[in-house]
Amino acid sequence: MEEDHYYPFGLTLNTTSNNLLTGQLYKYQGIEVKQFQITSQTNKKMKLLLPFFLLISLASCTAREPDIFILPDNFRGGILIIYNQKNGIAPQYHRKSRVYVIPKNGILKTQFSIDSDWSALPQFYYSSISSANRIRYVYDAKEIPENDVIAFGGSSGVANKDLAGKQVIRFATYYIGNKSIVDTAYQRLEDIDIISLAE
């Protein structure tokens, strides 16, 4: 007995066919298209390949370098990281993590190239790397508290130095503070002319 299951866009699962991938023609809005069937044998092969793809995905994640930010005591406001600056701060590491020592004005030019794919959430500390100095990081804007100081952000961007877009400045922004401080810092960073700051 043949058993077919409905899937969106005309895709069907045929549990009795021995073919890996079969297809038939049908019309959609007057256009002849091919309707594919995923068979049970295909499903078994996909299950065998899934751990392989998962391993590749995890390996690519572990290749990334986590970020650590060290801030001046009681720092509040926006952080702007400008990457690929020849005269910027030389790369620093703590174990396998990148270390960014943020100046009082919150603007850091670094020789690091941007590494926008996170393998772990960024870590923020006042003065030095210790659990007592750690600032809690939140990744959802809805979780920014009204009173407590947190770290937030991590969006990256590109500023074009020329109209053709051949010369670009890569940067990232973060924020330290409560909701009102973060909102104010966001507006301040929006008004900064990144091109004039970069080399």
TrEMBL record:
It holds the Pfam family DUF6843. Residues 64-177 form the DUF6843 domain. It comes from the Bacteria. This is DUF6843 domain-containing protein.
